[in-house]
Amino acid sequence: MASDNFAFVDAHHHLWDLSQLHYAWLTDKPFEGHPSGDYSAIKRNYVVSDLKATGAPVNLIKSVHIETADGEGDPVRETAWLQSVADKDGFPNAIIARGELMDANNEQQLDRHLEYANFRGVRMLTFYGPDILNDTAFLRGFEGLRKRDLVFDMDADIAHTDKVLKLAKQFPDVRIILGHCGFPKQRSVEYFHAWCKGMKAISQAPNIACKLSGLLMVDHDWSTGSITPWIEKCIEFFGVERCMFGTNWPLDGLYADYATLVNAYRTIVTDFTVDEKKALFQRSAETWYHI
């Protein structure tokens, strides 16, 4: 699906070098119940040269890296490593670090991250842990993001709809980017309707954008047709200026190669205008992540 003027900004991917940082989920105890299933095939280094090689067929021009070094006691170490990679090889262009928003020294940690030019914000894995979105300490930490004009990569699903909306309204000038289409966990008709209701509600907050990514973690026997309804509804609810495509690489690489996935995305939006496609594949990620 070659095109001379097609360019792709990957809004969600990961890199890891097992000799540089501690990735407990890759080297220690496996993540029990991970939606991707058996991920042993990716328990190896995945570095920027791999990203460039896999992204070349779809003209990958920029990328957003999402934290993954869960075994590191100091998340700034991952930011420092990624910045050194970016300085040498040009990717990633935005770094989303592991968030420690509930820690008393959160603001000092954010300032340490900000010593690295490509740092753009944080993610906290709220989805498997306690419900923290209305916790006093979390909200205090969120104020630290607001003061620094940083992104919050939201790991939440439709079960958190009310709390997500409340957070967005409390901090209307913080850019919140909802990961993986709200991470739908099931593929039943009933679940789809419930997911639509929740996503439509979340989309009412203008400071929330949506990443079109991660669908293969649950849909292991995916096809372009099977992921189309989820992507179309996200775009319907959020609009092209608040939607951006990501690959979730290399996790989604367990079930497709990089170019196959990106070209499936392109097929889904074939009938969109040139400008709408540019928003989805490039401009929205550049705008929301300031890259």
Automatic annotation (TrEMBL):
InterPro entries: Amidohydro-rel (IPR006680), Metal_Hydrolase (IPR032466), Metallo-dep_Lactonases (IPR052350). Residues 9-290 form the Amidohydrolase-related domain. It comes from the Bacteria. Belongs to the metallo-dependent hydrolases superfamily. This is Amidohydrolase-related domain-containing protein. It comes from Paraburkholderia metrosideri. The lineage of its organism: Bacteria, Pseudomonadati, Pseudomonadota, Betaproteobacteria, Burkholderiales.
